[in-house]
Amino acid sequence: MKKILILVMCIAAICGTMSGQVGSFKLGAKAGLNISNCWGDDTDGDAKIGYQVGVTAEYRASSLIAIAPELVFSAQGTKDSQVTNTINYINLPIMAKFYVIEPLSIDFGPEFGYAVYNHLAGEKVEGSLYNKFNVGLGIGATYNICKFAINARYTMGLTNVYKDLSVKNYNIQIGLGYKF
Question: Which residues of 65-94 are buried (b: 16+ CB within 10 A; e: fewer)?
């Protein structure tokens, strides 16, 4: 088992070294799991399981730093024993990636979202209840293995979800990406 683990780590290090060339630009796709909820005034709901799917890009500015914008459809919301609140966003996170060791980066940056779909208890909700725009701050990590990337991120909402309540989103994402 030790030999297999050492072999996998060596392959990952070689692939990471090959893909980390300064000035390189890579496009990719990603998909994954969301665990979302809300925080703020009068919130007692449970986390809602959703998904994310989208496209990514990464520009390697130096051996240690990269900029990585994404365009992602993200199914988010909250639920309690009686009602499920679904808010789906088109999100644009712009992450600064700091490569602490070659295949592993710590990611940090803003996320801008636009609500495209709001349902409360299965009924479509018109825009008067929700704010259409959402701004958040994300922190996470990405581990690159050849052309694949495994990432985890926590995004904390900074703007109110509802127009009349001080309630903000938070979202935990676990994803898998592929760089072309």
Answer: ebebebebebbbbbbeeeeebbbbbebebe
The number of beta carbons lying within 10 Å of the beta carbon of residue 153 is: 22
- Return the half-sphere exposure (C-beta side, CA atoms, 13 A cut-off) of residue 123: 5
Sketch the domain layout of the chain as residue ranges: 2-179
- Residue-wise pLDDT for 90-128, tens only, equals 999 999 999 999 899 999 999 999 999 887 767 777 667
Q: How far is CA 166 from CA 29, 42, 113, in A?
A: 34, 9, 17
User: Do 97 and 107 meet the contact criterion of CB atoms below 8 Å apart?
Assistant: yes
143 token code pair? 């581990």
Q: Looking at domain 2-179, which of 3.40.50.720, 3.40.50.2000, 2.40.160.20, 3.30.465.10 is its CATH number?
A: 2.40.160.20
